[in-house]
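TL;DR need structure tokens for one chain.
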Amino acid sequence: MHISLDGFVAGPNGEMNWIKVDEELFAHVGKRISQGDAAMYGRVTYEMMEGYWPTAADQPGASTHDIEHSKWYKDVLKIVLSTSMKDLELPNTEIISEDISQRINAIKQSSDSKEDILLFGSPTAMHSLMQSGLIDGYWLFVNPVILGKGIPLFNGKQAQVNLKLISSQQFTNGVTELNYIVEKESA
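>> reply
TL;DR here they are.
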């Protein structure tokens, strides 16, 4: 998830024009997401992704990133957290509109799951998952900008979560990746 230095994932009106991306960052992200079993979205982010990625590789002048991510997007299981999309039948897509904790835990425990379920964007879904204790790690891309206001990554409604930094990387465009896992409480 891209965040500003002051912890916002989007501007006050959902603006994301402050996010710095380039081929170096795309290549790095591509390696990580290619290992993921599933992509999770809130409804708004899913609709945005669905409007672009299925045909991105077919566009004239498609970048290497667009071609690779489009293929991954078509193949990966998409999980959408939405109460307004329930009962829709979409290819390679599972919609979760109730019993979120139970359904996500079942997916995480599935024998087919070998890697991560990656949440893309979707701050509302992220806040819900945080409050339910369903986030196992935070993969953050801190952009060198202070927005001052906007949609926060952390909304103050979640309980304290202790994290362990497992990796970090500085990119030439000024973005810093921070990869944390959630430290589970000892019984």
